[in-house]
Amino acid sequence: MDLSQVVALLTAGDYTISREIIQRGFGVLFLIAFASAFNQFPALLGERGLTPAPRFIALTSARQAPTIFRWKRFAYSDRRLRLVCVIGMVLAASAIIGLPQAGPAWVPIPVFLAMWALYFSIVSIGQRFYGFGWESLLLEAGFLSGFLGSHEVAPTLPMILLLRWFVIRVEFGAGMIKMRGDDSWRDLTAMDYHHQTQPMPNPLSRRAHLMPGWWHKSETLGSHIVQLAAPWLLFLPQPIASFAAVAIILTQLALVISGNYAWLNWATILLACSGISDTFFRWIVGGPFPGWGWNSVTAAIANHTSTEAADFVAVPDPVATLPVWWLIIVLVFVAWQAWLNVPALRNLFSPNQLMNASFNRLGLGNAYGAFGSMTETRNEIIIEGWDGESWREYQFKGKPGNVHRRGPIVAPYHLRLDWLMWFAALGDYRQTWFSELLRAISSGDPQIRSLMGTDPFDGAAPELIRVRVFTYRYATRAERAAAKAAGEPKPWWVRSDPHILIRPIDLRKV
Known about the structure:
This protein has 510 residues and is of the alpha+beta class. The protein has helices at residues 3-9, 16-45, 53-59, 78-97, 108-123, 133-145, 157-179, 183-186, 191-197, 205-209, 213-233, 240-258, 264-272, 278-285, 294-303, 324-340, 342-348, 416-425, 432-442, 446-451, 477-485; strands spanning 378-386, 391-393, 464-474, 493-505. α2 packs antiparallel against α4 (78-97). It is globular and about 85 Å long.
């Protein structure tokens, strides 16, 4: 086999549309992530935040929390944090509109690596507020995306296969965490609880929860089949790989429809697109592409000519090639990534499988997974202030509180404070961030108020503050109908069993 045959073997010319979706899609997610940090980081972790980043930086080493904010000339300030976010958003916007992709083959690499480095600097000092699996998922995916190259070169098979292995770590890892978790996943009852107890339900979560038992068993079984089997099918020939990718995408879209998981589902969908070939896209839109590339999609939709389902023949690209120098760069990079992924491979098949774990300082080759155990009862923490005559509840933008308010659609944006309130009800209220939150609310802190919902005190400080815990469940159809018949507002939630978590206290004097 000569060099030209090796190059041809390692060329993935039938994956240019997937490359466009992945690079532009992760550009969108980086844009959202930087916007989230711009809006929320100062209040949560800024100079006067709940757990200030400057203090955290001073108490940790560069090895423990690597960040550009350790540089003496760029020491942390809220202003510099927002500057980093603006730079990150500009870089993300350039990837979304395709500027780096229009340049030489190597140009996407520094753009995506710059986004990775800037966001990594934020996540490293984000403490509890950035302790979510989708942070490392976005970072790792962003690190890899630049090596897909620009339009000047064809995609490489090693990079496409590396991204498919990424899907296995995410999906198969999550599936194995569930099978090794509590009994509800194994006896197919997990989804009887999930829609009601998930961290931040959306408008369709209640309807999903009220579906019959056989539906929930089918959901659980379907989740196992897709997560444990479909990722491995990505390594089979086309069109099997494309159908497997579609199965993964559909299950992720079901989660998008029924919950708010920041960009977790969207990042998984983008990675799964690495399994879909251009010819499969051509078949879906119903017409052959005149060539491959992003413009081919719009051309195919415009022409909408017919094709047979079995016609999976790659359309060669008349322009883009795969230079040997570029192939060498990619092969070295993929070999390095393969070495970094060895601990993650071992973890997948370990009886003591770790969830959302990192095995190196760069946060590459991570372990992923979620919901290894299922919460069966929903408890909600309700913070109340005393105005001298009555107790008034503080509301949050996303988490359940007012029983007549349905959950909003938030994702892929991430309401970090609301998510941690879910964890607080599971025990996180003992952590520093929660006591500081109560102190900030007691003082009428405007930064914290901006992250919360309707303020019952209009910015003023309450005389006293207390914290209660309620058990929440969805209102049944009969309960809503009875409320309507009685001329009362129809409840979305029913809450019961209140008990005091923190007794009334004036934190202004503490």
